[in-house]
């Protein structure tokens, strides 16, 4: 089992270039199923992460031709794809459910099982089902399998109970081939939704309104190929911003869309961080950090839940008290219990975390419980006094491309150890 070994008290200096967004490439790869032209789709700025390779395996299982090299993907759905996905592939990540909409639209039927993904709460998919049924799908469940049939998807007006990112994306991908007009209300407004809209439009879809509360779609007969560059990963950018602030460093973040991080930059500045913004760059300088009254995670453009864990590290090391409210997921504070082993003073009460800033963390052996929690523990280890071992770093590799190498290039003393038992033997 791989782990990261971190020698603490690092001060990050230098620069980092942001790669393509995990939460954009995954729905866009799923949408490539809609291409019936027999020509290849070319995707660039692809992050080399585990979840992208899992989605590649799912597409290959469905019968698509998928090639990945040097952060570029080419995908061809020249043959009619299969309509069923194996249980083990479905269980590897949440995004496997993104195949429901496009397979239904393309084939009129699909068989899946409940998806896997980070353990951050129950993560139901009822909003996906309600929306697909509104478009005419008949969904049944039998012995753990989910069957959806829709000989003919028909446009509808749908109001989402919650601006779910995944449900918004699934319904967009179903509606683009549905007969007639579809209006989706109360949709997610994340930049990744806009990126998906741009990709679908490139394929010939008629879809408007992504980034607002309402998306309007007019179904077309068929969709073709296109080339598309994935937007930069705003969550990775925020992770590096926070890491630089926590270690008291000065870092240039390149290849980012600063406006995607407005809520994050505002909250970090409220906590005393010195951040300058240029067209596609941001600079964070050495800052004296103080607690903030409240950080509440919200759907975009609010503070992103995916940066709640890294922000917890920053505020746990800031002067004074802070409160974090996790309004999106029911159980996304597991990293707090790991941080306590490093001397963090954090009390959890349901969806609220109460922090009392401490001067210093102590290095410890900690375990990544999900993707973003893992990144937060790495940040904590970079700042801590002494050695930190972060276990279960596969979670981190699901969404960050060789995270340790980016930190090493900024001067961090972090190494990837392939066999955890060697670390124990070495008495690190
Ligand atoms: C996407 O997950 C992201 N994943 C998550 O990123 C991100 O945290 C989340 O959106 C919120 O921004 C990908 O894009 C691959 P939701 P998703 O549907 O689509 C409830 C990361 O670290 N809900 O917006 O699963 C749900 O339980 C990952 O990169 C229902 O109740 O999120 C949750 O409480 C983690 N019924 C809330 O909505 C449904 O049918 C938000 O979920 C769907 C969702």
Question: What does this protein look like?
Answer:
With 428 residues, the protein is α+β, with helices and mostly antiparallel strands. It has 2 domains: 3-19 and 232-425, Enolpyruvate transferase domain (UDP-n-acetylglucosamine1-carboxyvinyl-transferase, Chain, Alpha-beta prism); 22-229, UDP-n-acetylglucosamine1-carboxyvinyl-transferase, Chain (Alpha-beta prism). Helices cover 32% and strands 24% of the residues. It contains 15 helices and 23 strands. The protein has helices spanning 22-31, 50-61, 87-91, 100-107, 126-134, 165-175, 191-202, 234-247, 262-270, 308-316, 334-340, 371-383, 394-399, 403-409, 420-425; strands at residues 3-7, 13-17, 41-44, 65-69, 72-76, 109-113, 138-142, 145-149, 157-159, 181-185, 206-208, 214-218, 227-229, 250-254, 274-277, 281-285, 295-296, 321-325, 345-349, 352-356, 365-367, 387-391, 414-417. Strands 21-22-1-23 form a 4-stranded mixed β-sheet. A hairpin with a 2-residue loop joins strand 7 and strand 8. Helix 5 (126-134) packs parallel to helix 6 (165-175) and helix 8 (234-247) runs parallel beside helix 10 (308-316). The two termini are 16 Å apart. It binds ligand EPZ.
């Amino acid at each position: 089992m791989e782990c990261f070994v971190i020698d603490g008290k690092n001060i990050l200096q230098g620069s980092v270039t942001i790669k393509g967004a995990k939460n954009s490439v995954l729905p866009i790869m799923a949408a490539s199923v809609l291409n019936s032209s027999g020509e290849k789709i070319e995707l660039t700025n692809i992050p080399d992460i585990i979840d992208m390779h899992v989605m590649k395996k799912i597409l290959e299982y469905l019968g698509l031709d998928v090639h990945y090299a040097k952060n570029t993907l080419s995908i061809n759905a020249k043959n009619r794809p299969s309509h069923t996905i194996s249980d083990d592939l479905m269980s590897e990540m949440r995004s496997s459910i993104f195949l429901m909409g496009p397979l239904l639209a393309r084939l009129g039927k699909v068989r899946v099982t409940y998806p896997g993904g980070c353990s951050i709460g129950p993560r139901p998919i009822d909003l996906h089902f309600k929306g697909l049924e509104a478009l005419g799908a008949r969904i049944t469940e039998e012995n753990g399998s989910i069957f959806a049939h829709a000989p003919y998807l028909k446009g509808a007006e749908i109001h989402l109970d919650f601006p779910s990112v995944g449900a918004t994306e699934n319904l967009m991908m179903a509606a683009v081939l549905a007969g007639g007009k579809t209006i989706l209300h109360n949709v997610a407004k994340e930049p990744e939704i806009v990126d998906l809209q741009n990709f679908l439009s490139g394929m010939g879809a008629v879809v408007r309104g992504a980034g607002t509360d309402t998306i309007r779609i007019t179904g077309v007969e068929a969709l073709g190929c296109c080339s598309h560059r994935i937007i930069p990963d705003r969550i990775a950018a925020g992770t590096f911003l926070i890491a630089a602030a926590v270690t008291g460093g000065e870092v240039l973040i390149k290849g980012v869309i600063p406006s995607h991080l407005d809520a994050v930059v505002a909250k970090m500045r409220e906590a005393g961080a010195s951040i300058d913004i240029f067209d596609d760059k941001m600079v964070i300088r050495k800052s004296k950090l103080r607690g903030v009254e409240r950080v509440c995670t919200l759907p975009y453009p609010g503070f992103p839940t995916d940066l709640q864990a890294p922000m917890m590290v920053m505020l746990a090391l800031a002067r004074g008290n802070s409160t974090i409210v996790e309004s999106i997921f029911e159980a996304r504070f597991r990293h707090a219990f790991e941080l306590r082993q490093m001397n963090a003073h954090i009390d959890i009460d349901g969806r609220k975390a109460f922090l009392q800033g401490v001067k210093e963390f102590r290095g410890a052996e900690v375990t990544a419980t999900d993707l973003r929690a893992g990144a937060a523990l790495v940040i904590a280890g970079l700042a801590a006094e002494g050695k930190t071992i972060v276990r279960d770093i596969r979670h981190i590799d699901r969404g960050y491309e060789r995270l340790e190498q980016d930190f090493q290039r900024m001067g961090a003393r972090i190494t990837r150890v392939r066999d955890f038992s060697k670390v124990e033997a070495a008495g690190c």
